[in-house]
Amino acid sequence: MTHLNSEIPFQDAPPAEASVRRRSLIAACSAHAVHDGLTDLIYVLLPIWQLQFGLSYAQIGLLRGAYSGTMASFQLLASRAAKRWGRTRMLIGGTLLTGVAYLLAGQAGGLVMLLLALMLGGLGASTQHPLASSMVSDTFEAGGGAKEALSQYNFAGDIGKTLVPAMVGLLLTVVSWRASVSLMGLLGLAAAGLLWWLMPARNGSAVHLKKSANVSAHDSVGGLRALLLTGVLDSAVRMGFLTFLPFLLTNKGAGTAGIGLALALLFVGGAFGKLLCGYLGARIGMMKTVWLTESMTALLIVSAVYLPLTGVMVMLPLLGLALNGTSSVLYGVVPDLSSAEKREHAFALFYTGTIGGGALAPVVFGRLGDATGIALAVMTLAAILLLTLPLSWWVQRALDRPAHLAG
What we know:
By secondary structure, the protein is mostly helical. It has helices at residues 15-53, 57-73, 75-85, 87-105, 111-125, 128-139, 146-171, 177-198, 209-216, 221-251, 256-284, 286-306, 309-333, 343-372, 374-385, 388-406. 83% of the residues lie in helices and 0% in strands. The protein is globular and about 50 Å long. InterPro entries: MFS, MFS_dom, MFS_trans_sf.
């Protein structure tokens, strides 16, 4: 059962431990905001690079895939490397490497240089998700604020996705794209310096390792697999819906400005969903929260097909809240299904699966849309999302099993 004091994770900790928790959370949130912001910045830069270097759409896709593909591919390796060289060094080094990559991209003279720079950036970014999230969950003992802290960490990533591309959009009105990209490289270097200053000299998990191990010592391979599949389906439906939404709105008469506003409403709701649903999951439990958010998401996705444009625009913030909120609940369960020594590997596996599912979804569902039409494809997404309900029951059963054994 979640304690009432979990809402304020620092209040019952001794001053030294509270300081470690606070600094670790700020460090993780800062890393997430900067890394996710630099990752989504590529969407702003791709049209500029296409005009600058005369790239085809296939080459544009190659550039986008180079960053995200490298990031997804090396997350498991990053978790293993952290055991040898330390989480702090790997996270700071990865952030530094991402900053250097953007400095190189700012000097690129063609496709090859851009491709190498983005692969380097993806390699650096691969350290962030598994290491920062496991640092948060280790520092905040399970049941004492870990789930709430992870929801704040996830919220920070969405803030970065909003602020960094918007900042570059403003910079592009006064300076060249090369100067803008180079400044973002300097932002990455500054973030690495901030992490070096914030993170404890020793691994932040050392303070709470003994306490958290008592909670999460019971590994559940079956539960973790069910959680991974739940996350993959949730991510795939989210990315599939984002692919179809502009076309769905166009069919209802929306113009370019209307589509931009709709996406903004969806993303704002999604950012707050990651924060609020993490807290909700800590209060009422993982399964109840997932059933609530996924059922609501499925219902609202179907509603988006039949509602007029005004109705869709009104309900998009609520849809974004449910659509994105589930992810925070799922991330918060990873520490409960993995022992302390395997936590980084579990987070890396989970992030790799969800990012991979999200990357494949537009291709798979795009073909479905070509064959059946947008309306039926979107409703198929809602039906697929309902598969997460029995899977979350399976995860909950794995979470409850250690308590029965202990009793």
